[in-house]
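To make this tangible, this section ends with a sequence with its structure tokens:
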Amino acid sequence: MGRILAIDYGTKRTGIAVTDEMQIIASGLTTVDTKELLEFLKNYTTKEKVEKIVVGLPKQMDNTASESEVYIQKFLIQLAKAIPNIPVDRVDERFTSKMAFQSMIDSGLKKKQRKNKALIDEISATLILQSYLSSNLF
């Protein structure tokens, strides 16, 4: 079994999370400058067995696509060319940033630490991955 990798895509930074090899636990991996994302993913997928990539699907409250979906679609085309052998799934990512921020508060992080946007992106990717794992149990 390979890992599942999740991406919380942003125009500046992208949060990345990954499962263990048994696909049970979702953990934050890192935050990458989006300009370096494809290179990072190519390197990571050559070193680790990745079975699937999950990318957040940003939606508005009325279920329409968010403005950032335009950038994500361009990225998905580049990803398919760069890593054609790994399938990609999408997961609704509404509220993940707010949930990430709340989890930082709940875990007792100081105010200065909660301003770390890279950490919020990484936690958001973890929440996206956890949501994917939970919805695909059966």
Summary: Strands lie at 3-8, 13-19, 26-33, 50-57, 88-92. The first strand starts at residue 3 and ends at 8. The chain has one domain: 3-135. The chain has a mean pLDDT of 85.
